[in-house]
Design brief:
Distance between the termini: 43 Å
CATH superfamily: Alpha/Beta hydrolase fold, catalytic domain
Strand content: 15-25%
Number of domains: 1
Structural class: alpha/beta
Number of helices: 7
Helix content: 25-40%
Shape: globular
CATH class: Alpha Beta
CATH architecture: 3-Layer(aba) Sandwich
Number of strands: 7
CATH topology: Rossmann fold
Length: about 220
Amino acid sequence: MNDFEQDIKGKHVVILIHGYNNTFEKICDAYLRVNSQLITNRVPHHTVVGYIWPGGTKKLNYWPAKKRARQLSKRLGRLLTGISESASRVDIIAHSLGCFLTLNAMKSTMSAVRNIYLMAAAVGNYELTTGLPFANAASKADTTFIFKSKDDDILKYSFPFGEGGDDALGSTGPVPADKVVQNALTVDCSSNPDPIKHRSYSRRTEIFPDFAGFSLETASSPS
């Protein structure tokens, strides 16, 4: 950890956090795609850190994977604290159940995070209501961007099945709109001519150019 903190000292670090049901090879491929997107679109950063956690490799591993994500959150929180103390700036890009892990980790840390990007978040759509634990966690960042898509079949159908009927943040966006934590901005990726589905975010070149200015034209406060 000491060597790692020296490597990132004074740098702008982007941390990638994957979801569940991915092999090691698929995770690495996705991280390489995101890294390439950041470079191609000249998104300001110095170092990309790919965080890998045991999210399982089978569809029916959702509940054990979610339990592990909850158990790992304090460990990730300590890592975020170490990174933020060395780096000049920290941004987090999380996907699916990795968003659940990220928000849990942010509950246990006072890390200075600039932006959190939640893509296809496998989190209840009410969880960013002011006063709830995940809302408090999200508010520790300057801005939390929520990328949602109604074309995401996994979140639209499988998430409610696994969560007792709850809708996903990455499917509908946060609700109720008038009680969402103030630093949350929603990016609606729905109704794209080429639908943006659950596993396609890292491949979509139209998303990452907006990161360059960190002021997404398509972002809006929940309404």
